[in-house]
Amino acid sequence: MRFLKLGVIQGRGLMAKDRGGTSDPYYKLITVYDGVETEINKSRTIPKTVNPSWKDELRLSIEPKDEFLIIRLFDYDFGTSDDFLGQVSFDLMNLRREATRKSRSDVGSTSKEVFDEVTACDSP
Ligand SMILES: [Ca+2]
């Protein structure tokens, strides 16, 4: 096992997918090995905003072989399938132990960015 400390702070200027000009953003954490994705966590939904503030501090245990960690953002929709808002991908192979990588990441398309922080740890 490898251990990660992950902070998902907030999103800014995400896409508005609902009438009224907002979304109901949440994110999934996904690990990727050899092109295969595994969902390992799902955040709470923050209703009616394009600037969600999660301030989540997560401790994750991942497989040594996992190559990427993805934060994938969605707009929650009642009754219909949720809309994709963008994503951020971390290369786990290039993450140095006990080094913290702080970033404001562009999440693609017209969504703007997510503030996050990831640290590789020796213990849970
Ligand atoms: Ca929605």
Walk me through the topology:
Elements: E1 2-12, E2 25-33, E3 36-42, E4 53-62, E5 68-75, E6 83-91, E7 100-106, E8 113-121
Antiparallel strand pairs: 1-4, 1-8, 2-3, 2-5, 5-6, 7-8
Calcium ion binds at residues 17-18, 23-24, 75-77.
Distance between the termini: 9 Å
Q: Output the CATH topology.
A: Immunoglobulin-like
CATH superfamily: C2 domain
Looking across the biggest beta sheet, what order are the strands in? 4-1-8-7
The number of distinct β-strands equals 8
Helix content percent band:
under 10%
The Rg value, from CA coordinates, equals 14 Å
Which stretches of 5+ consecutive residues score pLDDT under 50?
A: none
Short summary of the structure?
This protein has strands spanning 2-12, 25-33, 36-42, 53-62, 68-75, 83-91, 100-106, 113-121. With 124 residues, the chain is mainly β.
Give me some keywords for this one:
mainly beta, binds calcium ion, globular, 124 residues, 4-stranded antiparallel sheet, Immunoglobulin-like, 8 strands
Please provide a written account of the structure.
The structure is a single chain. By secondary structure, the chain is mainly β. It has a single domain (about 1-115), classed as C2 domain (Immunoglobulin-like). It has strands at about 1-10, 25-35, 35-40, 55-60, 70-75, 85-90, 100-105, 115-120. It starts with a strand and ends with a strand. Calcium ion (CA) binds near residues 23, 75 and 77.
